[in-house]
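Morning F.,

Quick status update on the modeling queue. The single chain you submitted on Monday has been processed. Sequence for confirmation:
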Amino acid sequence: MTIPELINYQFATSTDLPPITGKMMEYWVAGNGVFVRAARQGLSACFPINQCSIRGLPHLTPYFHLQYPLVSARLTLQILQLAQIEANSNKTTSCIVVDPDIIEPKNIPRQNFQQSEIGLYKAEVLAARYSLGLGVQISAIAKQFTKKIVSTKWRKLTVIIGCVDNAAARAEISSCLDQNYSGSLPQIWWLDCGNHANSSSGQVMLGSTNQFTLEAAFDNLQKPNFCINIPSPSEQHPELLIPLPEELNSTGLSCAEIQARNRQSLFVNQQVAVIAAEYLLALTLTGSLRKFATYFHNTTGSCRSLYTSVNSLQKFTDEEIIPKSRSISV
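Structure tokens below.
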């Protein structure tokens, strides 16, 4: 088997260059200098890296060609139709960022902040940045999160996205679910995002109640068509409400300090964010959510989810599923 050369070296004998044969790049010596040339799918370029005059060789002209792939008319039409449907659905949304922390120099290396933002509230900086970038109204509360911030009086679907690093904050978020009325569709949901210390693994969990029962989970337990209640993340994993030793430290470690002690994988937060965004999209817009917990490990490349079936949810309750043919004595 002949292995193609990664880099080729050529002398230009014409201004019309032949097809590229180097797998990575080619160096061309021409009358007006030394050029490097390379091509990838949809992209090709040739530019000088050293300008000089060499007699007897033709001059080359630098170029940069970028080819955009074409989107079929049918697909474009489908995208426009879906956009029109959503535009006419009269769905409105609002977003509030809650965080009491101030940006410090130690936040810069791993968190998405800049030197010029040191001393400002994280919540206010993020709200302003994404309001301008996305063209939507985002508010900020630069205080500790409390359940008083959330109210069922809004009479709207409310999703609390928890990205906190301590048990006390999770307990406060969990208590918000107690505002949901028993026997009615839950208005408040908790989407919890987390990762594991000294690991590239993490999880995303969704829930709506701290008093989960199978009877209230489905429209019809014997022949369920859809799920209407899910155990809260703290019911799925009670250890979320148990403080870690560093959380009990009287000095009150910051997020960055806890992160430094429990070094996170470089891209674990990005993976959590992608999964959480898919959950949020399916829950609020497309109505296609079929799972309530997802666990991943970037190092091994594994990812698994728990789905909203009776069998998956039964382990979070002591209830017994009674077949229709079985009667109960009273």
